[in-house]
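Incident log, support desk, overnight shift.

02:14 A customer reports that sequence design results differ from what the structure should imply. Their input is reproduced verbatim below. On-call engineer (initials T.W.) acknowledged and began investigating.
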């Protein structure tokens, strides 16, 4: 009686053959096993925030100028630098919640964040509503902090809405900061925390050089 010959098939080929026949394609089982090393895995992202960080009531988040550097596990995998951030990758922005808001950016399971501040006013109402401070360049100023909890402070250039100065975070107590070095008009945003609540406050700031 003649012996029939059955060629041996390696486990990897068998997996590929089965997968191909099912129409699902074939992948490398080395990377498919639980806990396997995947060089394409994202290990961290670092976000560069957009220049505009101050908003008024009802405005939408503007990501113009924002980008993310994406870093991978594999030593031979180059990071993707200055990648455009898509709106579907951000969360935490509320156009109708006054105060300092933390915006999260999540890409392939990794996150980074940046802060923005939102005023429950229209730009035309700022001068009539917000209290005004007049300071000299680099002059130190103390703002009483009634909640006496940890606080943040951001100073925005009024026209560009960009951050020019921040002190973030600080311990409990009064809020102490120094004015920007350049003369101009600014918006100050503060946020104090206590017992799980945040208390936002805003001010106008005019920095004027001392006159002899």
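02:41 Re-run completed on a clean worker. Output:
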């Amino acid at each position: 009686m003649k012996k029939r010959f059955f060629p041996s098939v390696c486990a990897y080929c068998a997996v590929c053959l089965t997968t191909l026949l099912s129409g699902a394609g074939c992948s490398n089982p080395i990377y498919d096993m639980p806990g396997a090393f995947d060089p394409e895995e994202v290990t961290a992202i670092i976000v560069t925030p957009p220049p505009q960080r101050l908003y008024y009531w009802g405005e939408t988040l503007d990501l113009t100028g924002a980008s993310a550097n994406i870093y991978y596990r594999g030593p031979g995998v180059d990071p993707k630098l200055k990648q455009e951030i898509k709106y579907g990758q951000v969360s935490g922005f509320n156009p109708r919640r006054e105060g300092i808001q933390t915006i999260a950016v999540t890409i392939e399971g990794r996150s980074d964040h940046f802060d923005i501040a939102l005023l429950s006013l229209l730009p035309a109402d700022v001068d009539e509503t917000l209290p005004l401070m007049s300071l000299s360049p680099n002059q130190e100023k103390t703002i009483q902090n009634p909640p006496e909890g940890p606080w943040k402070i951001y100073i925005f250039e009024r026209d560009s809405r960009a951050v020019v100065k921040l002190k973030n975070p600080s311990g409990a107590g009064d809020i102490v900061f120094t004015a920007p070095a350049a003369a101009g008009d600014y918006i100050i945003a503060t946020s104090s925390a206590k017992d799980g609540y945040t208390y936002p406050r805003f001010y106008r700031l005019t920095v004027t050089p001392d006159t002899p």
